[in-house]
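Input record (one chain):
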Amino acid sequence: MPSHHPRSGPGRRSFLTGVGAALAALALPAAPAAAAPAGPFGRYGSPAARLSPKTLYVHPGGLGDHTSVQAAVSAASGAGWTLVLAPGTYRETVAVTAARTGMTWIGASGDAEDVVVVHDNAAGTPKPDGSGPYGTTGSATVTLQAADFTAHAVTFANDFLRTDLPGNPGTQAVALKAQGDRSAFFHCRFLGHQDTLYADSMSLAAFARQYYAHCYVEGDVDFVFGRATAVFEHCHFRTLVRTDLAGAPYGFVFAPSTARANPYGFLAARCRVTSEAPDGFYKLARPWVPGSDTTAWPSLVVRESVLGPGIDAVAPYADMRAEYPWQDQRFAEYRNKGRGAEVTVPENRPRLSPGQAAEATRAGYLGDWEPEECPVAGR
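The corresponding structure, as predicted from the sequence alone:
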């Protein structure tokens, strides 16, 4: 998405390997897993003992069917494949095309910190063929277009740093772009800085539904954005410190771009927002009305969540463009707690009535789809 915020300074390229203990303390813990047999794929079989004929095993050292995630995805033509990913760092970009429906990725250890899919393209990064920069969409480490995709215990990351392209305004760097309907993520992590998680759809007319449970998302500018109908339950959003800015705001957690015809945008329920930054240096959200859809009517509900002191309680919302003020959008809260949720200026904190809250639920947003963990991956 277009940048409407000053570029930030150095980030943390070490966040992929150097924060295990810290993130374990910050992120919502995964439920305990059953004891796993020895081997890189744990209790999920092996190439010699597959879970099913449509199970492929990925291992960076060559102990599986493939050494890269993209190679396994390319081999899994058609519907209904499962990829079991051994612990390791997979530095690559991955695209799951629309024809590969019903695909499941399983992190073999059950801990998302152990299985990291990462690359470092940004919107301003020049393409190797000289055809121009990647753009925001092209920067994504992982692009998911297929319906009925499910991921368990996998980290999606983009470790681009703004200092990698000094003076270049194209600092958007997407870790995951999800576009397919009925996309579900359980106990996953999404790491980046600007535009970390792009919850989108295949077209303006497609109302893609997505579900995120017990996930961890970190970033600084608009790091959860897009036009999907996306439900976040029991998720942890972490705002990062920035060394290049002298004052607030450092950034924004949510930037929905919901299509006007879509009654449902982003819903964050029973989540929490914490921060590395000083108190009040982050906004909860701002609306994104993209040039490709100037009729967008961004929608966000945050309910029964804990908003830490990093969120500006006095003015938690801001405009991205003056012609689309946040007050004209579908932003609302309900029964949130924490210092960042304190109501000091009531007109700056639109709230749902109990009747409206009764409709702002996972079932209301997702309709006839009830996301379920794959039985073999469930904890």
